[in-house]
Design a protein that fits this description.
234 residues; alpha+beta; 4-stranded antiparallel sheet; 9 strands; 22% strand; rod-shaped
Length: 234
């Protein structure tokens, strides 16, 4: 509120003054009486003494106090609106927690055998983003091509369920910052009804990954060497 209604202390004539002019001397527009407004918000006839402090009308002070009290403000909000807002916040929080858990179910291990098994398990569940996170950034496009080549959707063993992964180290030369691992994906035995969908050979897949020793002494997939080796085997 920027204006305040006041009454002349002599003739009771009603008039409006601006809040910013409360400390000024006022004159009634009807009877020309000079008056001022004291600290309680009352109109006093005459000139304002020097000892009178700056005007702070009580009803304005109360309105400011109410605005500073969050509980008082919330009590004025309709109940149905509070319920809707609370429900929305809970749903949004649950979604963020689920996203954070689902995007990284467990941290990537550091030892090479466990790291290779983790990468192959990501491959088995069609999790390309995790593989790219574990790949040397300079060879991300090559590991993407390797992923598309190896994860052939027409292969029947992908319908048999999650495979059992075993990993072995082919070689590991930290002096050359290079290593290679081979992982065997052993799929569950097919049932009689799904034999026509399974490959003629045993339901298994061998994956060879080449690695580079990168920053912080962590192993990252060498996509270029991995793709070239897979192309030769093919």
């Amino acid at each position: 509120m920027r204006h305040l209604p006041v009454a002349c202390p002599r003739c009771n004539h009603q008039q409006i003054i601006k809040i910013r002019d409360l400390d000024a001397q006022h004159e009634c527009g009807e009877c020309r009486t000079s008056f001022y407004i004291d600290s309680a918000g009352a109109c006093i006839r005459g000139r304002r003494p020097q000892s009178v402090s700056r005007v702070q009308p009580s009803h304005l002070t109360q309105s400011r106090d109410v605005a500073k009290d969050p509980f008082e403000v919330l009590s004025r909000v309709p109940r149905w609106l509070l319920v809707c807002l609370t429900t929305f916040v809970l749903i949004l929080g649950t979604w963020f927690v689920a996203q954070s858990i689902g995007s990284n179910p467990r941290s990537i291990p550091e030892p090479l055998p466990e790291r290779a098994t983790f990468a192959v398990e990501a491959f088995a569940r069609n999790d390309l983003p995790t593989l790219l996170e574990m790949t040397d950034p300079a060879s991300s496009s090559e590991i993407h091509k390797w992923f598309d080549m190896k994860r052939n959707p027409s292969a029947g063993y992908w319908r048999l369920g999650p495979p059992l992964v075993t990993t072995s180290i082919l070689f590991k030369k930290e002096s050359n910052h290079a290593a290679a691992t081979v992982s065997v994906l052993q799929f569950p035995s097919p049932s009689e009804s799904s034999k026509e969908n399974s490959p003629e050979n045993a339901p298994r897949l061998d994956l060879i990954l080449f690695w580079k020793l990168g920053q912080n002494q962590l192993w990252f997939i060498d996509g270029d060497s991995t793709l070239r080796a897979a192309t030769r085997v093919r």
